[in-house]
């Protein structure tokens, strides 16, 4: 099948808890279960924000290891750990030592809702260098055009490996708004050999922009990190969101990428 699409399941996120949506995984067992479900639904990548024993977002190294091990044991889905929670930077960075296949790399400090998302340039350089040493591919989360520019600067400095893997994140308060125009601006400014996926925050933005991205030949992400409700008043769950996106892809004659296709398309390095 030609033109496969990499579908990523962002199953929990850094903020929401089971009080917001009971379908958010919290324990290693719940992460393992949801990993298998989204894999069977068509996702080839799982994006994980690790949690502590109380189910709260946390960069605790041992808890993160338990979650990652449980997911790896459950199915062949490719793991992408978030280094982007709202914890001390040193704790976030340490998560890459767990050697997931990919880890998020947030490029710039920004206002994020009512908080400040701290990503100082030298710290970003340090994490990028360490990811390269370990063979962990950087998933570059860009929330505005300046973030793309700084990613290009890091490439020039030899801290990133091509093809760059971008996630265009639109709809965060403090970043660019969730509009088709903003998506097109960002995508048109990426190097030609880059791979990219769309992350639309909020129910409407998520479906509209991921659909557009798939139609344009890009990749797409969905899951409870990006939207808690599938429609007004109806709580979402991860496998249903993946199935909905797979149906969108199939309707425009794209098939979800297999694990092998994803490894090839994203040119994932070998873990060292
Ligand atoms: N929820 C995302 C928009 C990351 O995973 O590195 C921001 C985030 C970053 O959580
Ligand atoms: Zn995330």
Note the topology:
Layout: E1 7-10, H1 28-41, E2 45-48, H2 61-74, E3 78-81, H3 89-94, E4 102-106, E5 110-112, E6 115-117, H4 121-134, E7 137-142, H5 145-156, E8 165-170, H6 180-188, E9 195-200, H7 203-215, E10 219-222, E11 229-231, E12 234-235, H8 238-251, H9 259-265
Parallel strand pairs: 1-2, 1-10, 2-3, 3-4, 4-7, 7-8, 8-9, 9-10
Antiparallel strand pairs: 5-6, 11-12
The chain binds (5S)-5-amino-3-OXO-hexanoic acid and zinc ion.
Number of strands: 12
What is the straight-line distance between the termini? Answer: 32 Å
Structural class: alpha/beta
Strand order of the largest sheet: 1-2-3-4-7-8-9-10
The whole-angstrom Rg is 17 Å
Secondary-structure element order, N to C: EHEHEHEEEHEHEHEHEEEHH
Fraction of residues in helix? 25-40%
Per DSSP, what share of the residues sits in E-state strands of 2 or more residues?
A: 15-25%
How confident overall, as mean pLDDT? 97
Shape: globular
Q: What low-confidence regions span 5 or more consecutive residues with pLDDT below 50?
A: none
Q: What count of helical segments does DSSP give?
A: 9
Biggest β-sheet: count, sense, barrel? 8 strands, parallel, barrel
**Ligand names:** (5S)-5-amino-3-OXO-hexanoic acid, zinc ion
List the defining traits of the structure above.
single chain; binds zinc ion; two-stranded antiparallel sheet; 272 residues; alpha/beta; 8-stranded parallel barrel; binds (5S)-5-amino-3-OXO-hexanoic acid
């Amino acid at each position: 099948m030609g033109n496969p699409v990499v579908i990523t399941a962002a199953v929990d996120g850094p903020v929401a808890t089971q009080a917001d949506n009971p379908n958010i995984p919290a324990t290693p067992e719940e992460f393992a279960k949801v990993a298998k479900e989204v894999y069977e639904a068509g996702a080839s990548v799982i994006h994980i924000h690790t949690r502590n024993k109380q189910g709260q977002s946390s960069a605790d190294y041992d808890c993160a290891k338990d979650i990652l091990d449980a997911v790896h044991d459950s199915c062949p889905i490719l793991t992408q750990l978030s280094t982007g929670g709202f914890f001390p930077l040193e704790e976030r960075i340490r998560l890459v030592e767990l050697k997931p296949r990919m880890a998020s790399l947030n490029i710039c400090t920004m206002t994020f809702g009512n908080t400040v998302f701290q990503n100082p340039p030298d710290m970003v350089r340090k994490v990028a260098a360490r990811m390269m040493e370990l063979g962990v591919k950087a998933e570059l989360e860009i929330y505005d055009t300046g973030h793309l520019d700084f990613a290009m600067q890091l490439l020039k400095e030899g801290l990133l490996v091509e093809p760059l893997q971008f996630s265009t994140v639109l709809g965060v308060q403090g970043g660019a708004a969730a509009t088709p125009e903003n998506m097109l601006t960002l995508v048109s400014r990426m190097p030609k050999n880059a791979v990219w996926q769309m992350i639309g925050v909020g129910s409407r933005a998520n479906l509209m922009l991921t659909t557009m991205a798939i139609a344009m030949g890009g990749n797409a992400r969905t899951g409870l990190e990006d939207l808690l409700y599938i429609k007004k008043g109806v709580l979402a769950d991860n496998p249903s969101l993946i199935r909905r996106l797979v149906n969108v892809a199939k309707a425009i004659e794209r098939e979800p990428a297999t694990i092998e296709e994803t490894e090839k398309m994203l040119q994932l390095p070998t873990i060292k």
